[in-house]
Amino acid sequence: MTALPERTERKLGLVIDLDVCVGCHACVIACKAWNTENYGSPLADADAHGANPSGAFLNRVHSYEVTAPDLPPRLVHFPKSCLHCDDAPCVTVCPTGASYKRSEDGIVLVNESECIGCGLCAWACPYGAREQDPSEKVMKKCTLCVDRIDNHNLPEEDRIPACVRTCPTKARHFGDLGDPDSDVSLMVAERGGYDLMPEAGTRPVNKYLPARVPNEEIDVLAPLLEPITEEPGGFLGWLDRALTKMG
Q1: 245 phi and psi, to 5 degrees?
Q2: In this predicted structure, what is the pLDDT of residue 247?
Q3: Is 80 exceeded by the pLDDT of residue 150?
Q4: List of residues 6+ apart from 49 with CB closer than 8 A
């Protein structure tokens, strides 16, 4: 079995803002594209437009209708991938040492050359964040695009996960959650970011920012609209007055 590091120098992870995620799946497509042609073995994608498609994805977006008393139903989009847990059961259950957690930044990875595809890590993960590639028969998971963040030949703005780089609404943020003064940590503190399924005891690094309750008293289009006069003018005003007299 694989041991977890006693501590990590950093805790790199994602902060996902559920308030602004629109469920466009741009992060899913960017993740699939990058990880199919770069890190590790290609992600399977067989019969994608046929009757029996199969493949592997490292990032998925689930959508839920949420209802609350005295509020209209709301659609919340919930992206989910590996959460790079501090107490990652997928690592400690691995019989070959293929699953491991990097001590320098806390990222959980799979050494595919040592993976035997037994699937124990998938059974141990409470978030369903791992799956076996149907073509390569090895376990796949989010790597936080280590081949991007470790590549000093890339421009600084590109040394972040592909999903973060491509998100059109800036719902995804990347940084060191072990540093209380980092942008992502301050965002979590300000917005009340939370762990997914804390009862599992895995201490996930990734955090979620809650969807805020809509304020129905605020008209977001109001600044764009011309003020409406109480008394209509022009031809419509004349017509209104004429009809009023006839009545």
Answers
A1: -65, -40
A2: 56
A3: yes
A4: none
Q: What is the mean pLDDT of residues 158-167?
A: 97
Q: What are residue 77's phi and psi, to 5 degrees?
A: -100, 130
CA atoms of 140 and 42, how far apart (whole Å): 10
Q: Which residue has the higher pLDDT, 217 or 155?
A: 155
Pairwise CA distance, residues 227 & 230, whole Å = 9
Residue type, 115: C
Name beta bridge partners: 16.
172, 208
pTM for this structure? 0.82
pLDDT exceeds 80 at position 238: no
Which of 217, 177, 62, 58 has its CA nearest to residue 129?
58
For the cut 60, the answer to whether the pLDDT of residue 181 exceeds it is yes
Task: Report d(CA 90, CA 102) in Å as an integer.
Answer: 14
CA–CA dist 105, 118 (Å, integer) = 27
**Residue 40 DSSP label:** S
